[in-house]
Hints:
It is globular and about 55 Å long. 30% of the residues lie in helices and 38% in strands. The protein has four helices and eleven strands, in the order βββααββαββββαββ. The protein has helices spanning 26-40, 46-65, 100-114, 182-194; strands spanning 2-4, 7-10, 18-19, 68-78, 81-93, 118-124, 127-140, 151-163, 168-176, 197-200, 205-206. By secondary structure, the chain is an alpha+beta fold. A seven-stranded antiparallel β-sheet has the order 3-4-5-9-8-7-6, sandwiched between helices. Strands 1-2-10-11 form a four-stranded antiparallel β-sheet, with no helix packed on it.
Amino acid sequence: MLHADDIQVRWVMPEAFHDIPIHETDDEAVRLLGELVEKALPGAGEEAQTALAVTCALGVDDLLAADARYAGLCVTAIDETPCTATVFAALVDSPDVAEVGGAVKAIAANLRETGDAEVSEIELPCGSAVSYIGSREDKLIGDLTDSGQELTFSTWYIQVYVPLPNGTCLMMEMSTPTVAGWDVFSTMFGNTVSSIRLFHADGTPLITSVAAA
């Protein structure tokens, strides 16, 4: 859950995802990271759990740079292949247009101009939105690789933009470097964004669907 000024945003994360402590103090963050890796890798050795904790800790700066208000991690095995995915939610500026419908059109147009990923205008139960599906190149520092050399790898992602009537926009992203988990993770993420609900400050529901306007 997060607050966008006078709008409250809620959603339901799958149980397989564990919260990443991105806004905690150092000591509390270390404690919560320890709990995260124990839940994500139950029964795994200390080396594997430490590597996951370090990877999560190193990713916090990137999440904060993206203005993430929430982040979660899933570690699982799919057809015996270890797979991971990260989901985060952020508030970003919405295009300066009068209506949510116009914001949806503007966001979709901007995404088509700035990248070659797949852009779609969609309807969620909470309202109108834009999905952006593609891949990018990410890097893993040498300290976390067997060779000691920096590693570049592909990450597949889905971003969903939900413009709000107060001039802000909810952006949620699911990303995974393990393509074997794409179908499972994208289905989980589809369920997550479908669970998004918006509320006014007084608790009354808010739906921003263009189709219902």
